[in-house]
Amino acid sequence: MSEKNNTIIQVKISLLDSEPEIFRRVLVYDDTQLDVMHDVIQCAMGWDDYHLHQFIKNKVFYVADSEPDFGFGGMQKEKSESEHTIGELLSNVRGKMKYEYDFGDSWIHEIKREKLSEDLSALKHPVCIEGQYACPPEDCGGLWGYYNSLDILADPKHPEYEECLEWWGKDFDDKHFDPDAVNKRLRSIKYRAPLRVL
Hints:
Mean pLDDT: 87
Order of helices and strands: EEHEEEHEEEHHH
CATH topology of the largest domain: Structural Genomics Hypothetical 15.5 Kd Protein In mrcA-pckA Intergenic Region, Chain A
CATH architecture of the largest domain: Roll
Oligomer: single chain
Low-confidence stretches: none
CATH class of the largest domain: Alpha Beta
Number of helices: 5
Radius of gyration: 18 Å
Number of strands: 8
């Protein structure tokens, strides 16, 4: 494997419209391919990678090679995520893009580049340095369904309380964030040789 370059960027991954904000800050190499960045987001946020996803920047959709063609008939400009890097799309400090996960629940994340550093020790894997609040459970109906379920769980007399409790489990804590658990998941991500963008 070729060696990675030494350019490490800090990005903030935020679940758009979450209130209070659900976010993670991670360190990655700027030549991390978007398909690897997808794995970083899944691990950092706490998703289970059950659903389709896409990155969106300037009305261009970066998709996995294995994902189906939805037949937009040229109305949607698509590119392969494996052929582009996070640094390429977030070339400017404070640059932004979006990442959508689960087209049914439509979890929209804002990915924002915050800092650049070239003097950190080499990363063997991405690292989460900060975060806030738990990731919503899969298939809970998007942000509206998530917050509605939290309201139900806060009221043991609600007619749907028992059903919701059984679905989510009694140990779910929406305020919980465990950086050690996140970084343990991130250690499973192995960098590939750098992608040379021509």
